[in-house]
């Protein structure tokens, strides 16, 4: 795997890659987003003095600010990973929706958009981890606000890469909330971590996260991939341990009672250009099934249309099996 300096240069090239006219149509869509962009200092990780630990901004979100909620009683929340800009985040939200629809599961998809675009080096990675964890109370507040308005809706979370750290923090926060502890209507129907860039011990039954999984979530899933190119390389090299998304929960650690793992290596195709444009930092290492860290939510063609659904078919199968 390439070193940090090469990775930084490749990612910079990706950020300036032009979108095709077909993908520009995606950017013009009104994508529902819960945003905490510009809430944190990207150089220090500190929360802005103009913000508080629970506030968030929302745009076109069903059930908030007078926006109508769907009548199918379900909401999906997609949380992106590290080094994802606002444009890329919007594209990923839309691609997730396309993959869900291709599997005949049509529910509103809301994106949780956070300050993940720190400097591309080990220090920036540490700051991104801190910002992700600090976003937990903000995600928790959104989930609480939505549940207050729509207690009978199923909330289904999909979190990619370092987005798993946001989920970890949010669940720990909710597990300390008396309303979520004492009201059976306050729960999360399902959570799927995909390519999770957190410790392979994080979801152990004995951790705060594991306890919260047992208490707050009906069904929790970890989708891991032993050939994930980014997790195999930069994560292991930097953290000196395996991430949860590479081989699953560390051997010997006890599972929470509602916890399931799937090896989805065979679902991550060797197609490149997952968003419809060339991404050197990923595409240059894609040579076989499972290599693509960006392929979990599906892959676009250059025409902007979906050509592969990644591991979303597994997610939908899980949703259908536990649908209440």
Q: How would you describe the overall organization of this protein?
A:
It contains twelve helices and ten strands. It has 324 residues and is an alpha/beta fold. Strand 3, helix 3 and strand 4 form a beta-alpha-beta unit. The chain has one domain: Rossmann fold (3-Layer(aba) Sandwich), CATH 3.40.50. The protein is globular. The strands form two sheets. An eight-stranded mixed β-sheet has the order 2-1-4-3-5-6-7-8, sandwiched between helices. The model has no long low-confidence stretch (mean pLDDT 89). It starts with a helix and ends with a helix.
What's this, in brief?
It contains twelve helices and ten strands.
Which short descriptors sum up this protein?
324 residues; Rossmann fold; alpha/beta; globular
Gross CATH architecture:
3-Layer(aba) Sandwich
The largest pleated sheet is described as: 8 strands, mixed
Shape: globular
Structural class by sheet pairing and helices: alpha/beta
CATH topology: Rossmann fold
**Annotation, overall tally of beta strands:** 10
Tally of individual domains:
1
Strand order of the largest sheet: 2-1-4-3-5-6-7-8
**Approximate strand percentage:** 15-25%
- The first-level CATH class name: Alpha Beta
- Mean pLDDT figure: 89
Total count of helical runs of at least 4 residues: 12
- Distance between the amino and carboxyl termini: 43 Å
Low-confidence blocks of residues:
none
The helicity comes to 25-40%
The helix/strand series, from N terminus to C terminus, equals: HHEEEHEHHEHHEHEHHEHEEH
What is the radius of gyration? 18 Å
């Amino acid at each position: 795997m390439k070193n940090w300096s090469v990775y930084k240069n490749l990612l910079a090239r990706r950020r300036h890659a032009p979108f095709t006219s077909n993908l520009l149509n995606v950017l013009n869509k009104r994508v529902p987003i819960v945003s905490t962009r510009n809430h944190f200092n990207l150089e220090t990780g500190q929360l802005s003095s103009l913000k508080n630990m629970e506030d968030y901004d929302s745009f076109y979100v069903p059930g908030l600010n007078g926006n109508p909620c769907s009548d199918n009683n379900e909401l999906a929340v997609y949380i992106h990973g590290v080094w994802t800009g606002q444009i890329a985040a919007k594209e990923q939200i839309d691609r997730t929706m396309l993959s869900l629809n291709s599997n005949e599961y049509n529910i509103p998809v809301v994106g949780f958009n956070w300050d993940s675009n720190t400097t591309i080096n080990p220090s920036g990675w540490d700051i991104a981890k801190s910002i992700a964890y600090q976003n937990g109370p903000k995600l928790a507040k959104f989930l609480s606000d939505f549940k207050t308005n729509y207690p009978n809706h199923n909330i289904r979370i999909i979190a990619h890469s370092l987005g798993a750290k946001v989920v970890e923090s949010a669940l720990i926060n909710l597990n300390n909330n008396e309303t979520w502890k004492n009201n059976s209507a306050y729960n999360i129907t399902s959570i799927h971590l995909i390519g999770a860039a957190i410790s392979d011990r994080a979801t152990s039954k004995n951790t705060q996260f594991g306890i919260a999984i047992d208490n707050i979530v009906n069904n929790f899933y970890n989708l891991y991939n032993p050939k994930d190119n980014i997790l195999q390389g930069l994560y292991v090299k930097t953290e000196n341990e395996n991430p949860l998304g590479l081989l699953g929960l560390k051997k010997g650690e006890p599972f929470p009672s509602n916890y399931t793992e799937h090896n989805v290596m065979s679902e991550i195709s060797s197609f490149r250009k997952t968003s419809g444009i060339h991404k050197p930092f990923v595409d240059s290492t894609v040579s076989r099934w499972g290599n693509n860290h960006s392929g979990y939510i599906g892959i676009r063609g250059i025409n902007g249309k979906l050509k592969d659904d990644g591991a979303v078919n597994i997610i939908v199968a899980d949703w259908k099996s536990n649908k209440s």
